[in-house]
Prior knowledge:
Elements: H1 18-27, E1 30-34, H2 37-42, E2 48-53, H3 58-61, E3 68-72, H4 96-99, H5 103-116
Parallel strand pairs: 1-2, 2-3
Amino acid sequence: MSDRGGNIVDLTGYTRSISELLALFHVARLLITNDGGPGQFAALTPIWTLMLFGPETPALYAPLTPRCHSFYSQWPCSPCLTAYNHRTSYCDGDNQCLKVIAPGAVLAKARECLAAA
């Protein structure tokens, strides 16, 4: 799926291996993702990465690269998925901490990263 201008391509589910994912990250300019594996692998490539953190914290899990920016709402209950609480959360998986990350802030940072590229 792409936008009308052809600049955005959603390849969710289309990569079959880590090597395909890394090759894609070498030709793409920006990745917007959650705090999972693809964002971590992106740190091995020159792609700009915007990672959304909620139940986990970027203090422990954000990639150590200047080309990655973390969004984190810093709710007092986050990080909520820890061994100390048996990986249960106050919101029971509804991830309110992710829902308060403003799309406008993510878009502004995306534009900033793309302008710097």
